[in-house]
Every structure is written in structure tokens, then in C-alpha cells.
Amino acid sequence: MAPLAVGILTPAMLNTHFCFNQRPAASHWVSPRYSNVQQTADRFANLPVSVFLHAEAPVLLTQRRVVSVFEGSDVQLTCSLRDNYLPVNEITWFNNQGVSVQDRSKYLLLRTSAWANLTVKDTDVMQDSGEYRCSTSNAVGGADINVTLVVKKYPMPPNVTLVRVMYNSQQRNEVDLEWTVESQGDGGWTGFFLEHRWMSEKPNKRTRSNDSQVLREERASSQDWYINIIQDPDARIYTVRGLTPTVTYQFRVTPVNYRTIGYPSAAKTPGTI
């Protein structure tokens, strides 16, 4: 153990374990347990002393050693000193590749002398899962603590079945859709993709010169699905408008759960009223 600081004796210091570099005369030696603290402080005021503390390497703590989060979310990893140790170097974080997170847009680092919290933004299953390391040191030694981040995919949405696909008028330019969702009590979806595609045109119908560019492009790429996004997970009916009366379409519904796309329903062509 070595002296760590030289200063002036104060009443507060009498509550700290210390000894003098050179012991005073026996008649003036006092113990930290001296009954009259103020009198002792007055007697040795302005006397240089060397304070001896129990020097230790720092110890780091974290709230959770394993953190789980669904992909696309931001997540915070915590790291702090266990006690008020000797002055330590800056607390630093290293990512799951062992690279410092300093000045990287992927991360947000909030830090004081006693703690450092790391936020991993827009988490990705493949990119961000793994062990992150918090590190610091002082004159005695260093300390590290690992935090494991587990980024999970959202569960696959339940299957969807189209139960009604029907033109709502003789004009054949609008179709009403209705569908059901399996295992509705479990949740697990956030919306739907309502898709339709052009299949064929009625016999003896030809493309006229004044057909819209949109229709010509639709016919040229008849295998493409055109998507209407429904962001309401409770939706069960929808009307598709702006259809071409002479064209036969197919429709299907696909459930979506955040970034996970489920299986599309069986495609159906609309019936007539």
C-alpha cells in the first residue's frame, strides 16, 4: 500500500483510516477514534498528512447480462462502477465484433465518470446479436464485463383465408374482399398486404388506342402483384377500386408482423352479384 494523496487534516478526514508520514511526539499522537473530534482537528490543523486508502482495481456491474429484443427495436445495454474506486479511465464499450463503438452512427453512447450506457439502434438479427464488452481501468488494474445481446425475429404471422371475393356492382370496377385469420387470440400480426394481379381480358376485347398508360403497363406485366397496404390488424374487409371491367383479376391476402411477412392466402378470382 502506498500514499495516494497529501493534504491538510480536516475533521472529515478523521473518519478515514490514515497515518502520518512521521509520527508526532507521543504526547500529541491521536487516533481516528479520539473522542473529541473537533479538538483533535484543531490540534493538528494544517499538519501535512499522507492518507492511505485501500487501493483496488475497479469492478463493473450491469443490470442484465443477457438482453433480448425483437429486430428493428432500439435496445440499451448498461454498465456502471460498483463503488467509488480510485479515479478510473473512461468507461468504453466494444461491439460484438470487438470494435469500439465510439463515433459510430449505429450506436448512441451516454457516459459519465461512473457509468456508460450503450444504445444499439435499429437492431438486426444477423448484424447485432452477440457479446458486447464494457471496459475500464485505474492505476491498480482493469475490469471488463460482457453483455450478450439476443436479437430475435418476430414470430411468423398466422395464416389468412379469403372467404369472400365479389364484384359489388354490374360495372365490375370494384371488388369487395373479406378474410379470416387463424389463431386470432395469439395476435402476432400488425397488418396485411392486399394483392391483385391481371389475369386475362374478356374474349373479343382489344386494346384501344386511348387505353391508359397504366392499363397497358398492367397488361405488359400481368404476373406482377399490386399491393394495397392495410396497417390495421383488426381489418377483415376491404374494397379494391379502380379496376378495369374487361379484365379478370386474382386477389390474395398476406399477413404481416412488423418485418416478418407471412404466407399469402390462396388466390381467388371475384364472383359477380
Automatic annotation (TrEMBL):
Matches recorded under SMART domains: FN3, IG, IGc2
What are the alphabetically sorted keywords of the record? Answer: Immunoglobulin domain, Repeat
Residue span, Fibronectin type-III domain: 156-273
Q: Which InterPro entries match?
A: FN3_dom, FN3_sf, Ig-like_dom, Ig-like_dom_sf, Ig-like_fold, Ig_I-set, Ig_sub, Ig_sub2
Q: Does the keyword Metal-binding apply?
A: no
Pfam families xrefs = fn3 (PF00041), I-set (PF07679)
List each copy of the Ig-like domain by range: 58-150
Keyword Repeat applies: yes
The protein's name is Down syndrome cell adhesion molecule-like protein Dscam2
